[in-house]
Amino acid sequence: MSHDLYDRGGKPINGETFERLMKDPTYFMLADDRVVLPGQDRPIRIATKWIGLLKTITDPLFVCYIYGDPETDGVEEICSDYEDEALSVHAAAVKRYEDIAAVRRAYLDNGGPETLIGGAL
Asked: What SS3 state is found at 33?
């Protein structure tokens, strides 16, 4: 199976260029944020990356990875075809977890138990 390689703008590139770009975190990492949720040991990490490798026409060029969410029990991947779309997805994911953190803090500040049963909050 052949793979097509593309830069962040969707322009075809060769293997040598792809390898060079994959070694440059300022190129492949679009955004990388962490959100601390009260009652959780580790922060949620939201990292959006250019992957540049298409196996089929329907494969994305960008993926937003969400690590550490106890609700998903692993890694959530949200795929995008365009850089601006990927950055919008990233911003929405960060906002989602910031909103969850605010609700949890308010709950705890108002006397809620330190242990959140079943991750309900």
From this structure: strand
**Pick from 72, 70, 76: nearest CA to 38:** 70
Q: What is the largest CA-CA distance in the chain?
A: 58
Give which of 103, 112, 111 is closest to 35, Cα–Cα: 103
Q: What residue segments make up the domains of the chain, in order of their start?
A: 4-119
Q: What are phi and psi of 33, to 5 degrees?
A: -130, 155
- Whether the Cβ atoms of residue 18 and residue 26 lie closer than 8 Å to each other: no
Residue labelled with tokens 């993926």 = 63
Whether the model clears a pTM of 0.70, i.e. scores above it, the answer is yes
Give residue-wise pLDDT tens across range 57-67. 566 789 999 99
